[in-house]
Amino acid sequence: MNAGPSTSSNINADKRLIVEALSCVRGDRILFRDLNFTLEPEQAGLITGPNGVGKSSLLRLIAGLLKPFSGSITAPETRALCDDNLALDEHLPLEKALHFWASLDGDASIDVETAMASAGLGRLAEVPVRYFSTGQRQRARLARTYLTGAPLWLLDEPANGLDTASVEQLGQVLQNHLERGGLILAASHIPLPIHFDLTLELKPLAAAS
Ligand SMILES: Nc1ncnc2c1ncn2[C@@H]1O[C@H](COP(=O)(O)OP(=O)(O)OP(=O)(O)O)[C@@H](O)[C@H]1O
């Protein structure tokens, strides 16, 4: 992976993520309540907490895929959720799969070649996605995230399956996104090599809640 071109146009710097008094219920269980935080452009936040506490749910709420039980979320209009969903046609070679995806949901000003290079996938352009290893799939998710051109990246365990060198390279891609005015909110059990401005530690609520 490389960090992508530093000459890319800067992301609109007046975008913020503001979460106010946010509560989340899944099934009949409240996962967290009254969560408040703000992320400014060029800032990164880390969500921590044990399995099942609601980290992915928080990311999905901010992505707009779940509805808050209460509270509000103000976020940049375009948000990229990078989770375990690959969302690429597995039968197509990577480059074609990314082109197809970008034609539906990508930012036309970002080219697929740059996205592949940023995720260290250039030499796999002609390989059908279904042959990808776990780590290569993770890189493909990152390339797809990059292609959105979204200021806010919501990353759910982005280092899963990556080897040590690739985690470092992932850090460079994330740092480059921040330096272009982007925002990052990540849930990760694996330490990520970037500076986090904010850590949100989610704790299990008592069963009676
Ligand atoms: N569709 C659903 N309906 C009801 N409950 C759900 C649903 N999806 C997830 N949950 C529950 O919500 C809780 C939080 O799940 P979530 O995936 O947000 O946790 P997490 O902190 O990301 O966990 P992990 O560290 O294992 O990834 C879990 O107890 C899970 O079983």
TrEMBL record:
The lineage of its organism: Bacteria, Pseudomonadati, Pseudomonadota, Alphaproteobacteria, Sphingomonadales. GO terms for biological process: cytochrome complex assembly. Residues 17-202 form the ABC transporter domain. Pfam families: ABC_tran (PF00005). Gene3D superfamilies: P-loop containing nucleotide triphosphate hydrolases (3.40.50.300). This is Heme ABC exporter ATP-binding protein CcmA. Keywords: ATP-binding, Cytochrome c-type biogenesis, Membrane, Nucleotide-binding, Translocase, Transport. SMART domains: AAA. It comes from the Bacteria. GO terms for molecular function: ATP binding; ATP hydrolysis activity; transmembrane transporter activity.
